[in-house]
Design goal:
Layout: H1 22-25, H2 31-45, H3 104-120, E1 124-127, H4 137-147, E2 152-156, H5 163-168, E3 175-179, H6 185-190, E4 193-197, H7 198-208
Parallel strand pairs: 1-4, 2-3, 2-4
């Protein structure tokens, strides 16, 4: 376990170990499940606001351009025909919802697989807390350079991101913060490194772990 804050002298936080639930952090890698979750997320991010006018929506008269026969040229209707410049668009896009449906259990399995992949790649770190004492970006930048934690997503299990870390990391381009409840499979795979605090580890184990069933009592 590492420490975001500089530890005191004669204290090595790397000697502290964290036991992770194998049901959450040691799942077999399922590329098909990750693909489903990533496509589902990207589909839900599409705006779907592209719109074109059909020949019935284009402004103009409905008068026939020229007679049907006798001119020797191609037959034409009104000026809103898709064949003409300025006319309507045939089979053009209309506003629609691109979101796709994915079962909740598949999304949960995708998060387990994503966290397990980070553990196997040795790109998942755990700290005791993400509280940062100051609000200066320069101080946090120096500490991140010492740890080599560039391109890192910090995940907290609290309801809100700690204020000091949020203010200090706001101007750092290759660092971001998110709560465990808002983390999705796409960003868990996109960022090269994840750093969780103990509260986030407990949140994932509680939300994604196997439910604990109390032993039954039988009367003999």
């Amino acid at each position: 376990m590492s420490s975001l804050i500089r530890p005191e002298e004669n204290v090595d936080p790397s000697e502290e170990l964290v036991e992770l639930d194998p049901d959450v952090f040691s799942q077999p890698i399922r590329r098909d499940i990750l693909h489903l979750c990533v496509v589902h997320y990207l589909d839900c991010q599409r705006q779907g606001t592209a719109s074109t006018k059909t020949r019935g929506e284009v402004r103009g008269s409905g008068r026939k351009i020229r007679p049907q026969k006798g001119s020797g040229r191609a037959r034409l209707g009104d000026a809103q025909s898709p064949m003409l410049r300025g006319g309507g668009v045939a089979f053009g896009p209309k506003p629609r919802d691109f979101a796709t449906k994915l079962n909740r259990k598949v999304i949960q399995l995708g998060m387990r697989v994503a966290l397990s992949a980070r553990v196997k790649e040795q790109s998942l770190g755990v700290v005791r807390s993400l509280e940062w004492p100051g609000h200066k970006t320069k101080e946090l930048q120096q500490r991140i350079e010492e740890l080599g934690w560039w391109k890192t997503l910090f995940v907290t299990g609290q309801e809100q991101i700690p204020g000091g870390l949020a203010r200090a990391s706001n101007n750092l381009p290759m660092v971001d913060t998110v709560t465990a409840a808002d983390l999705d499979v796409y960003h868990a795979l996109k960022w090269p490194r994840l750093v969780l605090d103990l509260a986030a580890v407990e949140w994932f184990e509680r939300a994604l772990g196997r439910p604990q069933i109390a032993p039954r009592e039988y009367k003999l």
